[in-house]
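User: Predict the structure for this protein chain, please.
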Amino acid sequence: MNQRVTPNRGPALLDSVAGKLTTAVGAAFPGERAVFRGHDIHQELGDMDWMELYVFGITGRRFATEEIRMMHALWVFTSYPDSRIWNNRVAALAGTAGSTSNLSASAAQAVSEAYIYGRQNEFQAVGFFSRTVKALADGGSLQQCVDEEIKLHRRVAGYGRPLANADERLAPTMALAAELGLADRPHVRLAFALEQHLLDSGKN
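Assistant: Here is the predicted structure, written as structure tokens:
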């Protein structure tokens, strides 16, 4: 029987990286400068607002002014103070118990990883939209994409709000998107086409 044996590279691997930091994002040189994705953060990026720097750090690319404004609005439109919301409840309970703001927020962020309403659900939705836009551009059908998604996950993430049939965030979001010239992009068109497709199919 052939069995693959992985050599013990522990000490050798540690020695090879000792005293080194390999990163494409940046590094700080105390007393001298700080580099952020190849740019001196103090000399070259001072005109960025925080959201612009945030997404630049994640993606490595600069976004248009209209796109940054849209991102700001999305944060505002989804910043609900209601302590009945799952992750808000955790932060509220921790704060009421006298915990620190960092521990309270960190606990709430941990709860936000939940599959049904949190980041895992969003990753599933974004993955589906990315694959579907590409499939449609290559001549595929929306029905086929939906069938494959339901076969894989038993649902299409982001559709079928559990608390209400309407979404109060949609009208102000789309009004601003239209004002900024962002309302007719492929993923936005797909969102509405998919909603109508699901409704026509008798799904919630």
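The radius of gyration is 22 Å.
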